[in-house]
Structures are given as structure tokens and as C-alpha cells.
Design goal:
The chain is of the alpha+beta class. The chain has seven helices and 21 strands.
């Protein structure tokens, strides 16, 4: 069965940032076979194309997209045996709501993604930008994805280790100003989760422990974690709510900056920062003919530090609720990292605000903030 071509819907109705005109073509796919056929149809014409899931990580320009938009509407969760004792695997279709999967796992006592409750969007988009929150990232539980490369006849299974997962990135992500290393579409995702039952699990991550207000290492029911995270996200305007303009956003518009340690030391001491874990897989190989029983001293590579972009924005003179004169776009009144559509704002207005923020932070701290959403037909 082929994907269904429908009358194109304006993308402002399908994206949480609420920008974008109707594309030239739009195809809906409710099964993997429909998705593959729809992609083959788009590729055969040579037209531009992109896939659309929940629309929560897109910033679309005002001009109609000259190509095909394929909407991934596939759903379904399959439980599989894990080769590891006390664990279970979930294979989930790409169009399934991410938060619905988290709710499914929490309800059954499957641990490993509960701190990512409330993240909008679909499962297929989660590995693309290695979604994470409060110290958890999908790369910790991701086993593999099934994907189809552009121009390929059929999907293939790709282990998580081959996806180049890093801080909010992967080889599949289209970063602003560059093309993704691997142009492909995920059709399903497989996660490996711990079976904890109602007792929950010990929370070891510092960010999550702070969010939960924990002082001791004690088992915490997964439902308690989910409830607290949802409340925290709601307080920051990060849960979709039709009646709250603060949630008409793409979430955090700018990534937290990751800088070398010597750069972090130039920032004010009050700026929140977190050490980025070093690559522990780096090996020093010594040719046998050069080995004399002692390993040569190796210089410790400079570490990297993640710093709070929200703090940088607010301390460059841009507070929550800030907007430019006569603009319908503004910073969220609850969270300095979210750019919001206050009603009828177009992409030009949101882009103007984003560029202003970048310029102020750069002028004050010498750092250029990078956008987190995928930009389609927009220049910053």
C-alpha cells in the first residue's frame, strides 16, 4: 500500500512553533510499508523532501516548501526479550508519541527513560537529536534503529553505536549550516530498559536527584519521577498547552553551549556549568619496536564544559518575556531558552528575535549560541 497524498496542510498547523505555509505536496504514512512507498515516490521525482513527526523540533520559514512533506503517522509498541537479565526491550514505531512510550514504560515498571517524561515529538525523532533531560539521554537505553537511507530499496537495522550519538546530535541530524552525515529516515526504535517493578530504582544522576529533591541514594518509584518531571516542565512552559502561549515554542531554541575548560574559566563564576564526560575509549597504541617496558607520559586532553545558555541570555540583558517592538514573538515568560509565538507571529519575527539574542550573548560573553531546532527555509 502506498502513502496517501493529501491536500497540503499549512505547516503552522502542524508545528509547535506555529510557523510555515502549506508545502507543494504532502503524503501521509500510517504503516512502515506506506512510509517506504511514500519516500520512494518523493525520491523518484528528485524534489526536495523532509519527514514530519510531531513538529516540535522544526522552525519553518514563511515561504511554501517547494517539495514533499511525508508525515510519519505509524504507531505501535512491541515487547521483546532482552539478552540481559532483569531487562526488557521495546521496539517502537517511529510515529509513536515519545511521551506515550515513557508513560507505557513507567506504568509497567520499565526504567531508563522516565526522566524524559513530557518531551514532545515522536519516537523516530528521539535518536536523531539524542534527546535527553535531567541527566538521562536516549543513547543510554537505545539498542538499535531500523532506518531507510535516501535512495535505498529497503530499511536496514543500525546499532546505536553507529549513529554517532553526542550531545543533542547524531549522524542523522541536520545541523544549521551543514548537511547531516547520513540522510536517512528512522522507521522504528529499539530500547533496552531495566525491569524495576513498583519499588522503582536508585537515582544516581546529579541533575535528576536535584530535580527530585533527593538527598540520599534511595529507590524512587518511577511514577514519582514522572510526576515530578511533568510538573517541573509545566512550570517552565515546556508541556504543550493550547491555552498557554509559553508552550507555543520548539522547546529550548538554543543549545546549552559546550566549550573548552579554558573558555569556561573566562565566564562569571555564577554561570551554571557541568563537566562533559571525557571519551574513555581513547587508546594509546605503542609500536612493539618502540616499547621498552614503560608507557610514555601522555598529556591530559583539555576537558569540555557545558554551560547554561539560559543564564547567558538572561545575563546579557534579555529577560523572560522580552520581545522586540511590535513583534508577536517573545521569550517565554517562564524559560529564557524558549522562543514563543504569542499569536500569529511569522518566521521572520521569530528569526529576528533569535538573531538579536545571538548578537547580545556574543557581545557580552563571546559565545555564539547555536539553534537546536531543524531550520527549514530559514536563515539565522
Amino acid at each position: 500500500m502506498t502513502g496517501t497524498e493529501i491536500t497540503p496542510i499549512p505547516l503552522r498547523q502542524l508545528t509547535t512553533l506555529r510557523t510555515g505555509a502549506a508545502p507543494e505536496r504532502m503524503l501521509d504514512a500510517t504503516s512502515t510499508s506506506e512510509l517506504i512507498d511514500a519516500l520512494h515516490e518523493a525520491w523518484a521525482t528528485g524534489e526536495d523532501w523532509f519527514v514530519l513527526g510531531g513538529g516540535s523540533n522544526l522552525f519553518v520559514g514563511d515561504e511554501p516548501f517547494e517539495g514533499a512533506v511525508v508525515r510519519i503517522l505509524t504507531t505501535g509498541i512491541e515487547e521483546l526479550a532482552s539478552p540481559h537479565e532483569g531487562r526488557i526491550r521495546l521496539r517502537v514505531q517511529a510515529g509513536h508519541s515519545w511521551d506515550d512510550v515513557v508513560a507505557y514504560a513507567v506504568e509497567r515498571g520499565y526504567a531508563g527513560i522516565e526522566a524524559m517524561s513530557g518531551i514532545p515529538g515522536t519516537v523516530g525523532a528521539a535518536p536523531v537529536q539524542n534527546v535527553g533531560a535531567y541527566g538521562q539521554e536516549i543513547q543510554e537505553t537505545l539498542v538499535e534503529v531500523e532506518l531507510i537511507d535516501e535512495g535505498a530499496d529497503a530499511p536496514v537495522v543500525v546499532p546505536a553505536a553507529e549513529l554517532g550519538l553526542g550531545f543533542r546530535t547524531s549522524v542523522l541530524k541536520h545541523h544549521y549550516g551543514s548537511e547531516q552525515e547520513r540522510r536517512a529516515v528512522i522507521t522504528s526504535v529499539t530500547l533496552d530498559l531495566a525491569v524495576t517493578g513498583p519499588a522503582g530504582r536508585i537515582v544516581r544522576g546529579e541533575q535528576l536527584r536535584r530535580a527530585l529533591g533527593l538527598e540520599d541514594f534511595e529507590p524512587v518509584p518511577l511514577e514519582r519521577v514522572r510526576t515530578r518531571i511533568l510538573a517541573t516542565r509545566a512550570a517552565k512552559g515546556m508541556l504543550l498547552d493550547e491555552g498557554d502561549p509559553d508552550t507555543h515554542s520548539a522547546g529550548s531554541f538554543f543549545q546549552n553551549a559546550i566549550v573548552p575548560e579554558h573558555v569556561a574559566r573566562t565566564l562569571p563564576a555564577e554561570c551554571p556549568r557541568w563537566q562533559v564526560e571525557p571519551d574513555l575509549d581513547t587508546l594509546t597504541v605503542i609500536p612493539l619496536e618502540d616499547y621498552y617496558g614503560l608507557s610514555p607520559r601522555t598529556e591530559r586532553p583539555e576537558g569540555m564544559v557545558k554551560v547554561s545558555s539560559a543564564w547567558l541570555i538572561e545575563h546579557s540583558g534579555i529577560g523572560k518575556g522580552f520581545k522586540l517592538p511590535r513583534s508577536r514573538a517573545s521569550i517565554s515568560t517562564k524559560h529564557a531558552l524558549a522562543l514563543t509565538n504569542r499569536g500569529g507571529a511569522n518566521a521572520a519575527e521569530l528569526g529576528e528575535l533569535a538573531r538579536f539574542i545571538q548578537s547580545r550573548v556574543h557581545a557580552e560573553f563571546g559565545l555564539m549560541l547555536q539553534p537546536e531546532p531543524v531550520l527549514v527555509g530559514v536563515e539565522l
